[in-house]
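Input chain follows. Return structure tokens only.
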Amino acid sequence: MDLDKFDYKFAPVKFEWGLKFDVKLSNKDLMDLLIKTAIEAKNEDYGTQLEFVEYVSANVTAAQGFCFYITLWAKDLSSPNPEPKLYQTLVRKFRDELHVHEFKLKPSQQE
């Protein structure tokens, strides 16, 4: 099965309310940190100059810590066409460690 053909399927969650996922940070501050970490990893690994534009949605699942599936708008300033694009990322938080497992353009919604 080619998983790259599928979008993450989850109900959007706003992290400003609900359970707290970090004892030191508010959920909004945690989401900001997760997005910043994901963008920095993408820029470092692929030589891009992604700049965060807007948070869209996220979901979380428990998995030896938490796995955050995040959808966001960002633009690549190194691209000849720096229009904002929709990205998906998977960031795992275990204790105070963050690991970016995936960061990609969201597959097209057109069939």
